[in-house]
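Subject: two folds for Thursday's group meeting

Dear M.,

Sorry for the delay on this. The cluster queue was jammed most of the week, so I only got both jobs back this morning. I'm pasting them in the order they finished. Each block is the input sequence followed by the predicted structure tokens. Could you check whether the formatting survives your parser before we put anything on slides? The first protein is the one we discussed after the seminar.
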Amino acid sequence: MAAKAYVLIETAVGRTKEVTSAIERLEGVKSVDPVTGPYDVIAVVEGESLNEIGDLVTGKIHPIAGISRTVTCLAIWSA
């Protein structure tokens, strides 16, 4: 069973569109949406393991220019 997580992303002012575009091109990203509220973008990611999700977030999402902060919420089961 694949692991799934929600990545809550804060972006620098005016960078939400380009951050969203960069994230949606990454392998393992199932959906990405700009949102209102305390976060600017929410991405749903999946991987074969929690380590794979960790590598995706730290190795591919964090380096994207315009990202200020992320919070990753791991899904504990899928309905």
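Second protein, same layout:
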Amino acid sequence: MTPRDITRTVPFWLIFGASALGAMTNAASTPIIPVYVGEVLGGGASLSGFIIALAALSSILAMPLAGSLADRRGYRTVALVGGSMAVVALVLLATVPQLWAAGASRLIFGLGNSAAMTLIMAWLVALAPPGQRGKALSIYGLSVWMGVALGPQLGTFVNQLWGPASVFAVCAVIEVITVSLIMGLPRPTLITPRDVTTPPRGVRNLLGAFRAVWVPGVVAAAAWCGEGLILAFLIIHLQGVGVPATGLLGAASVFGVFAVSVIGARLVLATMPDRIGPLRSTAISLSALFAGLTTLAFAQDFWVAAAGAALMGVGFSPLYPSLTMLATRGLPAENRAMGLGLFSSFTSVGYAGGALVGGFVIGFASSMWAFLLVAGLQLVALAVVTIFTRDETPRSTLDAEEPRDPAA
């Protein structure tokens, strides 16, 4: 009997909603950090980049650790703890206007939010029938870009009305809703006896997962370096050339163009990784990201910036499912959450790198050079994935694996 379409079930849309809201809290709060640092803490671009990067740096540890714990303890508990930590972090940032609190908040937010989001993705992979995982991941990926589109608009709007602290307070409320959606997910069936009786092999499992995911991970790091840069400094970059922060043709609206282009391209290119293979699809994505970041570097008005954002959206559209397909080829089912967490940690390396590079380069040169530098990283990533990856089959071996439900 044909399995029920996972995308037509309530659990899928609970996962989709939790992912969208989790992405929204990050996308709404991150662009406000430079404003908060400048107006409240009295710092500059370098300090802003460092504080933004703290969340990404802590998530590098949190993602594989959360995956490892979830493989043994179950997804629900770890995801709920992670979401609760994100709430505490945002409340701290909203209520204590001190440098130490900002640093601590970003570290805790990175640990909690990334753990919850990693397990939400792994939960979807575990619940989806093997033949539906590519489709489920493609549609699920839209949730992230919805959050990226709406978050900066929400953050800049609330900031103009009530200030940076109010943005963080609103994000805390959104994170509470995220936790409630995770609580509403159905309790999965019990894991197999082999999963219960076989002790974890620790370092061996970690090394095996690293070998499976390092190449797509390096590519993800380069690509998400671009996302980290635009989330942290695109508004400042465009304000420097006379584009207002808000309004229909304001800098914040460029994020909307970015997200809409991702969604539109995803609808058109959803089957591209299956048709031409994840390696070729990744190469096309990186080329589009290079073109988009270069265009943003030289943008002098909203329309050119929107064109650059649209190119980046087209690039990111097939990149997530393509890299996930490449990353999961060598991962056994009993080690999948750890592997996906380790792969996701590479995105955090890139995200942190984008904020750090942006703050450092802007501090001594200009934002244009920051965008050009990160654009060049896309070409480096293209060389790495081309040299070290064989596109053995146009479909991921993930679809051939037997599914395994996570522990409750």
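Two things I noticed about the second structure. Confidence is low (pLDDT under 50) at residues 190-200, 394-408. DSSP finds 15 helices and no strands in the chain.

Cheers,
T.
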